[in-house]
Amino acid sequence: MATDKELSDFLKSVEKRAFKRTAYTVRNDDAALDIVQDAMIRLAEKYADRPPAELPLVFQRILSNATMDWFRRQKVRNALIVNLSEFEGADDDGGDFDLLELLDTSDNRPATESAADSVGRKQILELIDVQVAQLPTRQREAFLLRYWEELDVAETASVMGCSEGSVKTHCSRAVHALAKALRTKGVTL
Amino acid sequence: MKQSLQPTFNQDSADAVQARFALLVTAALSEHLAQAAPADIDARLRFAHDQALAVACRARTVAIAAPAVIGVSGGAAVVGGGPGATPWWLRLGALLPLAVLLAGLALIDNHYTRSQIEAAAEVDAAILADDLPPEAYRDQGFVEFLKTARP
Fold first, then answer.
1. Which of A28, A142, B3, B146 is most enclosed, with most CB atoms within 10 A?
2. Of B22, B34, B56, Cβ closest to residue A175
3. Would you say the pTM of this structure is higher than 0.80?
């Protein structure tokens, strides 16, 4: 059973990422905040007695359901036109290019950075954020759950309600799409 | 043997490169999130966090208090109930006045029926114990005599 402190620490560790992921999906900061708050309260109300190790997976499921509920409500109100093609995912698998080209493998990066470097870095981060936001919904969800929330393939599949093979495919496509987009913009990680 | 291992090795290698790239992207996202989150969003998240903890605390209090309060007398027990988590015994307590009312109505009905029966029995006993036979009361002339002969 998670103590108040364990629950508080857990929520602190996930709340910002949860907000960002939800904001990517619903494209509305206020709605994303409402959804995250709703998910946090549902977790606290129903699952606070669970062991701390179970909280991440339970929370991701609750957040996913809360986001779907939001879309359903929006659909009922006819306030949102769902672009179904976004859920299908692009057929583009990124083409033939080497991901290693994008990875800066040199170890001679400067220990400190100048103001210009700092601004440049900020622009790169902004660019990455935009590119992630532009991924198809399912690809982005799989990618973020798998690598940002650090769920394993089975857990990601469970949260997304799909097979493990689909998760791997979505992740692979997302990585290739991001790599291609970043390479086009001349960004090296 | 070497040929059959080659694709697996290549796949593992590709997965490793993919994972490394993905982790660099997510690290960048985390960095961006830490730098760029507006203060009002931080405040809203803090509020949501506090709300969630308050709800968890309340849920735990109700869960712990419910078994302990069963032994306490009814009036005091009502105070501990939280919204949305009414224990079964409180719901049962709400039905108690209705049960008392129904029992009262049943008692009154029973008492009324018995008093009716007793009154009828008294009349029957008086008629049977009288000097006149019961058939005399069927005679219209005798009934008229009774009505007019009264002082």
1. A142
2. B22
3. no
